[in-house]
Amino acid sequence: MFGDMAASGGLAGRKGRPEDTTGMGKKAMVRNKSANPVQVTAEQLLREANDHREKEAEPPKQRIVDEDELQMYRVRKRKEFEDVIRRQRQNVGAWIKYAQWEASQQEFRRARSIFERALHVEYQNVSLWLKYVEMEMKNKFVNHARNLFDRVTQLLPRVDQFWYKYAYMEELLANYAGGRTIYERWMEWEPDDNAWLQYVKFEERCKEAEKARQVMERYVNCRPTQLAFQRLCKFEEKHNNTARARSGYEKGIELLGSELDEKFYMKFAQFEQRQRELERAQAIYKLALDVLPKGASDELYRAYVSFEKQHGDRDAIEEVVLNKRRFIYEDAIKQNPRNYDTWFDYVKLEENCGDVGRIREVYERAIANKPPIMQKRYWKRYIYLWIYYALFEELQTGDLDKGRAVYDALIKVIPHKQFSFAKVWKFYAEFEVRRLDLDRARKIFGRAIAECGKQRIFLDYADLEMRLGNIDRCRKIYEKFLENHSQNPKAWNVYIDLEDSVGELDRARALCELAITQEKLDMPELVWKRFIDLEISHDELDAARSVWQRLVGKSNHVRVHVAYSEFEAVTCQSMPSCREALERGLRHFKSDNRSDERAMLLEHWLKIEQEHGDSKSSEDVEKRQPKRVKKRRMVPGEDGQDAYEEYVDYVFPDDKPEQQNLKILDMARQWKKRKLGMA
């Protein structure tokens, strides 16, 4: 059987697949990919599909010509509706269609019967009641409609739509007493705001202003909210009862208080403005700004500023702006009392106002917020609050005793055992100097040296004595400076500057000699430089050369040789001495095998010869310039195997070839030693 299928090509004609005529199966390729000469668009396909669409079958039109046919039609339709509601009893739409069809046939008793049957199924369906009532109202069965409204308002009293339609129907029938009765029944359920407002509008349409007022008062008593009080006051103002409107605003503030927002106060103030009571409006604005939270009164503040611009003077406007800034600063301080930048801005604001009592209060509140951590970086901004406070007392109020008390309190607050501030001692001492109390200023500096001991203290103290002309006191201060900071070159240099300024050259030299012999010095080159500058400033070039030679003998750094050569070439204008100094440096670096320093020194020599020498000497030095060459050297690798790296070396024309070969041999010996050490 299977052979027959294969012979007949059964596999090629499998169901769902086209017959394969290429013999390539799924890998068959399209041979002709050129475009078809006849193109069909999507629009053409849709148009053709629409043209060939069959028309839908329309039901035949039926004409009823006699009573029997009408009865048969009604019986058939009723049977259809009954079948539908029997199958879908909960389908309210089917009930409504059935009832409306009966109503269209003028069978109102049957329609009512169908609606009642539907209400037994689902009496809480709002749409069902509305269709029922609309049928009665449309066909002018008023009493039936009233009965339905009475029933539905008792069953569903929280559905406002039935109350609205009931009252509206009575109002259309001019039964105002009946409409009022409906509203009264509705108000017993305490509905939402719109129901009360509709009742008020009903009374207004009936020209019963007093009854409308009573309804509005009942509304406020039932729902004492901000919006209710605003509507009451608007109603009274509309009926030209200003006193009752004002009383409504005041009662709202009395009862609600903290629940009110800025809009209520703005409405109240705008009401007073309309009544030309500008003082009352201003008082309301100020009360609101004092009562409301700082971040919830931006619109109120803008309204107040606009009010003051229209009706106030310059001082009132400035007071408004000032109060607003105070509110902002107070709010920021409440969030972070240790934000010292906010305190600075707050103090500056109060100082611009000029109220001394308020300024002192702000300063005292600010300095009461000490940093909780004993680290100097947290105290830097805090210290300036004290300093500004003391300067304020001294310069603006003129209360010097108060300023001294501020400085004394500041000195007690600072934890001097952990850290101190030189600027505080300096400001305190200068304060006493301005008071011409020099003894007290000296005591302050002496205490600062004992408790703080910073470099700035000694320099400021010596500067004070120097301005007063007390040279001996300056010497004592600098001697104390050297005792405490003997490793600081600044201490030696300022002492040398003092002796030099008063003409004591021998003392200055002795200090220099003493300084350069110190074993521990942070930056000794500064002291050597000051020694050399001292000799040069007094035209003692031989002495300066002697100092240079001592420095070169002590430190063979390349920069020292460069500076010494510049001294000989520029200051002394002695090129032979300069060349001799450079040759000495080259010999030293050559013996130490320091090619980089040697090349740097030769480059500097060439530059000096070009600037201060002659052409022959420049050519000679240029011939001695080294050549940069790249070389490879062996370095130990991470895995224990040798590796090579490239480096830059210098080949000097002054070196003999055999010396260069010896250098290579020396490097080979060093490499062999490293290999043996690793093995």
CATH class of the domain at 250-333: Mainly Alpha
Tell me about the biggest sheet?
2 strands, antiparallel
- Strand tally: 2
Total helical elements: 34
- What low-confidence regions span 5 or more consecutive residues with pLDDT below 50? 1-14
Fraction in helix: over 70%
Terminus-to-terminus distance:
86 Å
Mean pLDDT: 82
Biggest sheet, strands in spatial order?
1-2
Radius of gyration: 54 Å
Layout of strands and helices, then pairs:
Layout: H1 2-7, H2 42-51, H3 67-87, H4 92-104, H5 108-121, H6 126-138, H7 142-155, H8 160-172, H9 176-187, H10 193-205, H11 209-222, H12 226-238, H13 242-256, H14 262-274, H15 278-291, H16 298-311, H17 314-335, H18 340-353, H19 356-367, H20 376-397, H21 400-413, H22 422-434, H23 438-451, H24 455-468, H25 471-484, H26 489-501, H27 505-516, H28 524-537, H29 541-554, H30 558-571, H31 575-591, H32 595-612, H33 615-623, E1 627-636, E2 642-651, H34 657-678
Antiparallel strand pairs: 1-2
Helix pairs in contact: 3-4, 4-5, 4-6, 6-7, 8-9, 9-10, 10-11, 11-12, 12-13, 14-15, 15-16, 16-17, 17-18, 18-19, 19-20, 20-21, 21-22, 22-23, 22-24, 24-25, 25-26, 26-27, 26-28, 27-28, 28-29, 29-30, 30-31, 30-32, 31-32, 32-33
Quick summary of this structure?
The protein contains 34 helices and two strands. By secondary structure, the protein is mainly alpha-helical.
Question: How does this model look, in words?
Answer:
- Helix 16 (298-311) runs antiparallel to helix 17 and helix 31 (575-591) runs antiparallel to helix 32.
- The protein has a two-stranded antiparallel sheet with strand order 1-2.
- The protein is elongated.
- 71% of the residues lie in helices and 3% in strands.
- With 679 residues, the protein is mainly α.
- The longest helix has 22 residues, at 314-335.
- The two termini are 86 Å apart.
- The model is unreliable at 1-14 (pLDDT under 50).
